[in-house]
Amino acid sequence: MNDEFNMSMRKFLKQVGVTSQQAIEEAFRKTDGTDGKEYEARVVLTVDGVDLEHIVTGKIKG
């Protein structure tokens, strides 16, 4: 992989991380989700033109 590819991928992943965190925080504020309960979370990543579907699951404790 070349440097341009690596930089564009890192930039995309940084954007995903930052915007996802903001969306989760806003959703928890709206629903008062800070109750100590665990919430199932899932991210599905697809890339058009490449045979890729990557699923990440986890838990977020409110």
Polypeptide structure, described:
- The chain has one helix spanning 3-31; strands spanning 38-46, 53-61.
- The longest helix is centred in the first third of the chain and has 29 residues, at 3-31.
- It has a two-stranded antiparallel ribbon with strand order 1-2.
- The model has no long low-confidence stretch (mean pLDDT 94).
- With 62 residues, the protein is of the alpha+beta class.
- It is elongated, with a radius of gyration of 15 Å.
- The chain has one domain.
- It starts with a helix and ends with a strand.
- InterPro entries: DUF6494.
- Pfam families: DUF6494 (PF20104).
* Count of domains: 1
| Rg for CA atoms | 15 Å
Strand proportion, as a percent range, falls in: 25-35%
Provide the spatial order of strands within the biggest beta sheet. 1-2
Structural class: alpha+beta
Helix content: 40-55%
Number of helices: 1
DSSP strand count = 2
Note poorly predicted spans.
Answer: none
Major beta sheet, specifics?
A: 2 strands, antiparallel
Global shape: elongated
The H/E string reads HEE
Mean pLDDT: 94
Q: What is the terminal-to-terminal distance?
A: 39 Å
Pfam families: DUF6494
